[in-house]
Amino acid sequence: MNKRKLLLRIINNYKNVNFDDFVVIIEAFGFRFEHIKGSHHIYVHKLIKRRISIQSDGKEAKPYQIKQFFAIVDEYKLKMED
What domains, with CATH codes, occur in the chain? Predict the structure, then answer.
């Protein structure tokens, strides 16, 4: 599935999102993986000082973390890279 379609699917429903699909979207917005601390996957962005920490819930992303991510995207007016 292309990234734009994946993005629309996630925006329309934060539940039942595959963790790996969520990672694809995070990275498409310019975040890069920094490290893992316990079960937390830490991502950084060159324009943002704060880090994003995400965890899987089995094979799925946690809906509240998806919501937090999109709040950061809106706050910083980030665009998805091609």
Answer: 3-76 (3.30.920.30)
Q: pLDDT tens digit string along 25-38?
A: 999 999 999 999 99
Q: Which amino acid is at 37?
A: K
Task: In whole angstroms, give the CA distance from residue 30 to residue 78.
Answer: 8
Collapsed DSSP state (helix, strand, coil) of residue 60: strand
| Alpha carbon distance 35, 7 (integer Å) | 24
Q: Tell me if 73 sits within 8 A of 27, measured CB to CB.
A: no
pTM for this entry: 0.94
